[in-house]
Design a protein that fits this description.
Blueprint lengths: L9 H7 L10 E5 L6 E6 L10 E9 L3 H12 L7 E2 L8 E9 L11 E2 L2 E9 L10 E13 L4 H11 L1 E2 L12 H12 L6 H26 L9 E5 L5 E4 L4 H8 L3 E7 L9 H11 L5 H7 L5 E4 L1 E2 L2 E8 L2 E9 L4 H5 L3 E4 L9
Parallel strand pairs: 1-17, 2-5
Antiparallel strand pairs: 1-8, 2-8, 3-5, 3-7, 4-5, 6-7, 8-16, 9-14, 10-11, 10-12, 12-13, 15-16
């Protein structure tokens, strides 16, 4: 798909500025004036098991990216970088506390206190397994927005609305690279038929392509007012799990469970197989995916497994404070969710590009 320029690029809009669910935000402000204005803490959802094969390290990093820290830990451990595990990438322009795993070698001294450019190891625990991508429960955020302009009194009502009803579970702009650079790489793949040979660039490209297709479907449902209701033929997700089931004709009881946050409609993580929608849900989804043709078919041709992702994101333990012209937000999100997708429903901010991702 060609475009006249960034401002007319429909892919760029899906990646960086999809439609908001609750209309224009009441205020604007500055994000990340200081690194500590964006603070995130990873929640694994399990305790170290005391095994002897690996060590779990809690690392605080500031102004540096996850991959850099992993490589530094590999050097310290005398192991290949691929032996270092982490559950998710965290924003570079932030203060983040996240977990890494390193193989346990008897001669290696404790990592506690080990530090490098922008990071230090806070704690160490014995564990039996390497930490895998996605093996976390979620992330806790503390975000500060400064220099508010607009009707700050409207924030409380907006926060209450989001806490009760949720927000569209968009992939944030971080997923698509700096200035949306990964979209260009996706287009290059479509025109040449060639994927990067290196594992990491290939993974980023394919992840961006799947995220683009998902955002296309969610954008269509937000525009049509159906992102937070169940359509006939819906594939329904059980909150807090990866379990899904088909609902040919969602009844009042299922709609009530949606309102209570127990279930959510879903969109596609395109690939081959998996549970597919029917009826009206399928018609809406297929029409939306036509905007990113031929991405879905090519992802399936590569053998990627088709999966589903919840359309509705509900923050937990959501609180806010207003002090003068500064807004502070505290909330927890499940794995794979983007804090920036929540933030853009509350306040219009200019979010700097990062090389991080959702956890």
């Amino acid at each position: 798909m060609e475009a006249d320029g960034p401002e007319h690029d429909p892919w760029r809009a899906l990646a960086r500025d999809p439609p908001r669910a609750w209309g224009e935000t009441p205020v604007s402000g500055a994000l990340r004036v200081e690194l500590s204005d964006f603070d995130v803490e990873e929640r694994l959802g399990f305790e170290p098991d005391g095994g002897v094969a690996h060590r779990l390290l809690l690392v605080e990093k500031s102004g540096t990216n996850t991959v850099f820290v992993a490589r530094a830990l590999a050097v310290r451990a005398g192991r290949p970088a691929g032996d270092i595990g982490f559950a998710g990438q965290k924003d570079r322009r932030a203060v983040a506390r996240q977990w890494f795993s390193v193989p346990a070698i008897r001669e290696t001294a404790s990592f506690v206190g080990y530090s490098g450019d922008g990071f230090r190891v806070l704690a160490e625990h014995p564990h039996s397994r390497k930490l895998r991508r996605g093996s976390l429960a979620g992330n806790r955020f503390h975000i500060r927005v400064r220099g508010l302009q607009g009707d700050a009194r409207a924030i409380a009502a907006r926060v209450e609305q989001l806490a009760a009803s949720g927000i569209p579970n968009y992939y944030g702009g971080q997923r698509f690279g700096r200035e949306g650079a990964n979209l260009g790489r996706v287009r290059q793949w479509l025109s040449s038929g060639k994927l990067p040979r290196s594992r990491e660039p290939r993974a980023y490209l394919l992840s961006s392509a799947r995220s683009l297709a998902f955002n296309a479907v969610l954008s269509a449902r937000v525009a049509g007012g159906s992102w937070n209701r169940l359509l006939p033929g819906e594939v329904v997700n059980l909150a807090g799990s990866r379990s899904v089931f088909s609902a040919e004709f969602p009844d009042e009881g299922l709609q009530r469970r949606l309102a209570e946050g127990d279930v959510s409609p879903t969109g596609p993580l395109c690939g081959v197989g998996g549970v597919l929608p029917g009826g009206e849900a399928a018609r809406v989804e297929n029409a939306a995916l036509s905007a990113v043709t031929p991405v879905p078919a090519l992802l399936a041709a590569l053998g990627m497994r088709g999966e589903r992702r919840a359309l509705v994101l509900r923050p937990r333990d959501f609180r806010h404070r207003l002090e003068g012209d500064t807004l502070e937000l505290d909330f927890e999100l499940p794995r794979g969710a983007f804090a920036t997708s929540l933030l853009r429903e509350i306040v219009d901010v200019r979010v700097p590009e990062t090389d991080g991702d959702a956890g």
